[in-house]
Amino acid sequence: QVQLVQSGAEVKRPGASVKVSCKTSGYTFTSYYLHWVRQAPGQGLEWMGVINPSGVNTNYAQKFQGRVTMTRDTLTSTVYLELSSLRSEDTAVYYCARQALLEWDYNAFDFWGQGTLVTVSS
Amino acid sequence: DIQMTQSPSSLSASVGDRVAITCRASQTISSYLNWYQQKPGKAPKFLIYGASNLQSGVPSRFSGSGSGTDFTLTISSLQPEDFATYYCQQSYSTPYTFGQGTKLEIK
């Protein structure tokens, strides 16, 4: 069965960086794009970007350009999200999500990780 | 960026009721509209893609409609497990923006 298992909660100081992992299993890692979505406490969902695990292609939301890096390790079927220069507004649950293979390139997210809480506090 | 606006923001209903949640895009997105359900402390669950296509395993009481800029998620007969927050999302162009959510509560 498809599983996306994320790393544990993190507490970081303002200005620091955080790296969250998302280990996938149950499907061919290189066949599905992986996205990152975050959710601040009590707020809605915010798309951060996407990585193509079969290559090095990434597409980041403009809001995070310069602060975000998405990478992957094909040997362990894991993707990573690194966010730098953290500020209090980055406190959120970060989710990885698999892009489904759908007709007409309807891009939607069919499987999600359990989420990783990142708290930024001095 | 394409802005997605849901209404209402919250909704109280009873088991067995028929409810509708609307989502409006700030520009045309054809049928590139998805719906998700989220329960407290859990990741979102994928319900509908392409505005009206039910994801495998999702109960048939859920349905979606619309195209262009206006979309609707309908639940034909609410069940206890349907009380949750619902989000629309456009996948027409990046950044893939979400609506602000509609919280469906028990009356």
Task: Please give a structural write-up.
- The complex is a heterodimer of chains A (122) and B (107).
- In chain A, 0% of the residues lie in helices and 49% in strands.
- Chain A has no helices and eleven strands.
- Chain A has strands at 3-6, 10-12, 18-25, 34-39, 45-51, 58-60, 68-73, 78-83, 92-99, 109-112, 116-120.
- In chain A, a hairpin with a 5-residue loop joins strand 4 (34-39) and strand 5 (45-51).
- The mean pLDDT of chain A is 96.
- With 107 residues, chain B is an all-beta fold.
- Chain B has a six-stranded mixed β-sheet, with no helix packed on it.
Fold blueprint:
The complex is a heterodimer of chains A (122) and B (107).
Chain A: E1 3-6, E2 10-12, E3 18-25, E4 34-39, E5 45-51, E6 58-60, E7 68-73, E8 78-83, E9 92-99, E10 109-112, E11 116-120
Chain B: E1 4-7, E2 10-13, E3 19-25, E4 33-38, E5 45-49, E6 53-54, E7 62-67, E8 70-75, E9 85-90, E10 102-106
Instruction: Name the quaternary structure.
Output: heterodimer
Q: What distance separates the N and C termini of chain B?
A: 36 Å
Give a short account of the largest sheet of chain B: 6 strands, mixed
Name the helicity range of chain B: under 10%
Provide the low-confidence segments of chain B as ranges. Answer: none
Average pLDDT metric of chain B: 97
Output the helix-strand order of chain B. EEEEEEEEEE
Count of individual beta strands of chain A: 11
At a glance:
The complex is a heterodimer of chains A (122) and B (107). By secondary structure, chain A is mainly beta.
Notable features of this structure?
A: 122 residues, mainly beta, seven-stranded mixed β-sheet, four-stranded antiparallel β-sheet, 0% helix, B: 107 residues, 10 strands
